[in-house]
Amino acid sequence: MRFRSLESRIATVFLVLILVIQVVSFIAIRAGIDANARAAIGNELAIGERVFRKLLEQNAEKLTQSARLLAADYGFRQAISTDDRETIETALDNHGQRINASLTMLVSSDRSIKAATTKHVSPALLKLVLQLVDQTEENGGASGTAIVDNLPYQIVAVPVKAPITIGWVLMAFPIDDKLAVDMRELSSLQVSILTRNEEGRWRSIASTLLAPELASLLGQLQAAPSAPPVSFDLNMAGSEFSARLLPLGKDAGQIASVLLQRSISEAIGPYRQLQLILLILTGLGIALGVAGSILTAKRIAQPLRALAESAKQLGTGNYQGRIDIQRDDEIGALGKAFDHMQDGIAKREIEIRRLAYWDSLTNLPNRAQFVTVLDEALMQAQTHSTGQTGQGCYVLMMDLDRFKHVNDVMGHDFGDALLCQVALRLTQQIDAGRATVARLGGDEFAILLDRAGLDEARQLAAKIIQSLEIPLSLDDQTVDLGAGLGIAGFPEHGNDAETLLSLAEVAMYAAKQRSNGAVVYDPLIDTASKQSLSMLSELRSAIDRNEFRLYVQPKLMLGTGKVVGLESLVRWEHPVKGFIFPDNFIPFAEQTGFIRVLTRWVLEQSAMLCRDLSALGHHLKVSVNLSTRDLLDQDLTNKFADILTRYQVGPASFCLEITESAIMDDPVRAQLTLEKLHTMGVDLSIDDFGTGYSSLAYLKRLPVDELKIDKSFVLNMELDAEDSKIVRSTIDLGHNMGLRVVAEGIESEAVWHLLSGMGCDQGQGYFMSRPMPADKLVGWLAQWQAPQHRDAAPELIR
Ligand code: C2E
Ligand code: CA
Ligand code: CA
Predict the structure, then answer these.
(1) 553 Cβ inside 6 Å of ligand 1
(2) How far does residue 747's CA lie from ligand 1's centre (Å)?
(3) What is the CA(710)–ligand 3 centre distance, in A?
(4) 746 Cβ inside 6 Å of ligand 1
(5) In 515-556, which ranges are continuous DSSP H helix?
(6) 271 has which bridge partners?
(7) What's the pTM value of the predicted model, to 2 decimals?
(8) In this structure, which of 128, 401, 487, 556 has its CB flanked by the most CB atoms within 10 Å?
(9) How many angstroms separate the CA atoms of 135 and 516, rounded?
(10) Is 478 left (phi over 0), alpha (psi -120 to 50) or beta?
C-alpha cells in the first residue's frame, strides 16, 4: 500500500486518530485510578485510625469493668479500711493475674501509692497515675496510655468507695500483639506498634508485618533524620505503602506509636486489573479501528481504483469494460454515472466513426474507409499471393457523366436521390462477400474486387456500365446516365492503396475522354497525358509565334445557292508536326482552359475578315464556335463587345455556334451567357444538333436563332433512310420552333437537293467547299456557281 494512495491516507488518518484517542483516554483513566486509589487509601487510613482509637477505648472500658469488680469487692474494701496490707496485696495480685494485668496498684486517699505489683514506679508514670486519679472525680473512672520500661501500656483508674472514696485501683495492660491482630482483623491495614527511646532508637513491640518488611521499616525510620510526619509513603521490600503514625504516649523522651500501613499496590490491585482490561480493550479498539479504517479506506479506494482503471481503458478506446459497483451511496452513483458516460462516449464514437468513414448520403463507405478496406485486402493478397490468377485485388473507379448538369438543372435534392439510386445499382451488381462499393466523393464511386483476376474485374466493369445504361427513373423523370470507369489492381499495376486509386483514376479519365465505358490502366495513358502537358506549353507559344491559321467554310442558302455566311475553323501549323486539325487540339485546349485564348483569337480574326469582306461588298455572317469554357467565362460578352467596336463590325454580322453538350455542362451559367449575347444582337446557333441529350423543353427556353443538324445524319442521308427521316423531322422541328435550320456535312449535290427539298434553309459542306484559308475566300466567292435546281427523288424525301 503506497503511502500516497488515498486508501493509505484514509487508513493512516483513522489510525492516528484512534491511537491518540485511546492513548489519551488510557492515560486519563490511569491518572484517575491512581488519584482514586490514593484517596481511598487515605480514607482507609483515617478510618483505621478511628477504629484503632475505638479499639483502645473498648479495651479501656473492659479493663475499667474489671477494676470496678475489684473496687467493689467487700473483702478488698474491708482490707483497705483496716489497712490490711497483706490482704490488699494478695487481692491486687490475684485479680491482676485473673485479668492479665501487667500492673495493679492501689492509691490511697492521700494520693500516695499504697500497694503495687511493681516496685519501681517512674515519675512519669506517677504523674499519669495522679492525673487519672483526678479524672475519676468527674467520670467515676479514667483511662490513658503510658510507657513503662519502653513498653506501651493502657492504664485504667477507678475509685474505691465505702461509701466515700477511700482509694483508687489502677491497672495497666500492655498494648501488644493482641491489639495489632485485632486491628488487622477489623481492617485491611498492617499494624505495627513501635516505640522510640531517648536515644532515638526505634523498636517494634508488635507487628502484623512479615519479618523482612518490618526490618526494612525500622531501618528506614532509623535512617530518617527527623521524626516522621503523621502521613507518609514508604517502600518496603519492594512494595509501596502509605502509612499513618499515631502517637500512643510519651514518657521522658520515650515515645510509643502505632503505625498503620496500607499497601498501595494491594489497594491499586483491583484497579490495575481494570487497567489491564482497559489496556486490552484499548489494544482491541486499536486493532478493530485499524481493521475498520483499512476496510473503509478499501471500500472507498477500491471502487475509485476501478473507476480510474476503466477511465484508463476509456482513454485507450476500450468501451467494453463494465464498472461493477453495487452500492447505493455516492460512489455507487459515481460508478453509474461513469457507466453512463462510457455508453455515451461509445455511442458518440460510433457516430463519429460513421461520419468519418461512411458517406451519410448513400450509407456507403467513404474514401477513408475504402482506403482502409483496400489496404487490408492488399495485405491479405500479398501474404497469400501464390502468383496465380484469381488472387488479385482490383479497384474500379467510376465517375458519372453529366452529373453536374443534372444537379444544376434538377436541383440538389434530385441529384442526391440520383446518387442514392446509383449506389443501389452498384451494390446490386456486386457479390457482397468479395466486393465493396464506396462513394469517394461527388459523383465518383469506387468498387473493390477482392480475390479476383483482371478478367473478372473487366467483366464486373462491363456489368456495371451495362446496369447504368438502363435510365434511372426519379420523380417521373427519366435520367440517362453514362459513366467512365477505370480499372487498376494488384498484382498488375501496384501494391498499395494510394497508387491503385490514382492509377484507376487515370484510367477513368481516359475512359471518359474516349467515352468507351471501362479502361484498364496502361502506362501509355500516362505517356499520353505527359504528351498533353508538353502540348499545353506548345499551344501557349503557338499564339505568340502566330502558328494558328484561320480557315473558313462558306454557308449558303440551299434554295438559291447564295453565299450568306461562313464558319470560322481554326488550324494549327506546327513547325515540326505540321498541319494539325482542330479535333487534335481543341478538346485539349478545352480541358486546360486555353480555349478562351484561342476563341478570342478566332473572334478577332473573324471580325477582321468580316470588316475586310464588307469593304469589298461581301456582307457575310461569320459563325464562330464557342466551347463550354467560353460559356462559363463571365467576361466573354465584354471581350466580344470590345472586339466588335475595335473592328467596327455590328453584332448582327456574327453567329455563335454552341454544341448541346457545351450548354448542358453548366446549363444555368450557359443560359445566362447566351441571354447576354442574344441581347447584344448576335445570332446563336445550336451546333451538332441531334447528338446531345438536351431536352426540347429545355432548348425551347434558350434564346437561339439557328439549329445546325449534325453532319453524322447528313453525310449518308442519301443512302440511309433512317438518317433522312431524322434530318427531315429535325428540319420540321426547327421550323416549328421558329428557328433557321442549317445542315452541315453536304458532300454531294444529291444531298443538297434532298435537303433543299425538305425545306432546309442553309447548308455547308465539302460539296460547296472544304474549309479554306481566309484569304482564299474572296477568290472562291468570285468563281462560285450554284448547282442547277432540280427536284429530288420523292422516295428519298419520304
Ligand atoms: P464543327 O463545328 O462541327 O465544324 C464542322 C466540321 O465539319 C469541320 O471540321 C469541317 O471541316 C467539317 N466539315 C464540313 N463539311 C464537311 C463535309 O462535307 N464532310 C465532312 N466529312 N466534314 C465536313 P474541322 O474544321 O476539322 O473542325 C472540327 C471541329 O473542331 C469543329 O466541328 C469544331 O467543333 C471544332 N473547331 C474548329 N475550329 C474551332 C474554333 O475556332 N473554336 C472552337 N471552339 N472549335 C473549333
Ligand atoms: Ca461548328
Ligand atoms: Ca458541327
Answers:
(1) yes
(2) 14
(3) 5
(4) yes
(5) 523-544
(6) none
(7) 0.46
(8) 487
(9) 161
(10) beta
**HSE value, Cβ hemisphere, 13 Å, CA-based, for 541:** 6
- Any ligand 1 atom below 6 A from CB of 545: no
Query: Nearest Cα to 78, choosing from 90, 66, 67, 94?
Result: 90
| CB-ligand 1 contact for 661 (6 Å cutoff) | no
Ligand 1 neighbour 771 (Cβ under 6 A): yes
CB 682 within 8 A of CB 624: no
- Please tell me the distance from the alpha carbon of residue 716 to that of residue 701, in angstroms, as a whole number: 31
CA nearest to 517, candidates 661, 393, 396: 396
pLDDT at position 387, please? 60
Compute, in angstroms, the gap from residue 752 CA to the centroid of ligand 3. 17
Ligand 1 contact via 765 beta carbon (within 6 Å): yes
User: Cα(404) to centroid of ligand 2, in Å?
Assistant: 24
Tell me the chain's radius of gyration from C-alpha atoms.
72
Omega into 491 within 30° of 0, i.e. cis?
Answer: yes
Alpha carbon distance 82, 69 (integer Å): 19
Q: Which of 510, 515, 513 is nearest to 526 (CA)?
A: 510
CA of 711 to the centre of ligand 3 (A): 6
Lookup: cell for 475: 420523380
Residues in contact with 666: Cβ distance below 8 Å, sequence separation at least 6, in sequence order = 404, 405, 408, 628, 631, 632
- The per-residue pLDDT for 794 is 44
Instruction: Report d(CA 289, CA 308) in Å as an integer.
Output: 27
For residue 532, the model assigns a pLDDT of: 65
- Ligand nearest the Cα atom of residue 552: 1
- Decide: 766 in ligand 1 pocket, CB within 6 A: yes
Residue 796 has a pLDDT of 43
Ligand 3 centre to CA of 742 (Å) is 10
Tell me, in angstroms, the distance from the centre of ligand 3 to residue 725's CA: 19
Buried b (16+ CB within 10 A) or exposed e, 327-340: eeeebeebbeebbe
Dist CA 746 CA 749 (whole Å): 8
Highest-pLDDT range among 144-158, 185-199, 387-401, 482-496: 482-496
| Most ligand 1 atoms within 8 A of CB, residue of 744, 755, 768 to mutate | 744
Q: Which of 550, 569, 592 to mutate to test the pocket of ligand 1 (most atoms within 8 A of CB)?
A: 569
Alpha helices by DSSP H, listed for 666-720, are 667-680, 696-701, 711-714
Which run of H or of E encompasses 489? strand 483-490
User: pLDDT tens digit string along 670-718?
Assistant: 888 999 999 999 999 999 998 876 667 777 888 999 999 999 999 999 9
Phi/psi zone of residue 681: left (φ > 0), alpha (ψ -120 to 50 degrees), beta? Answer: left
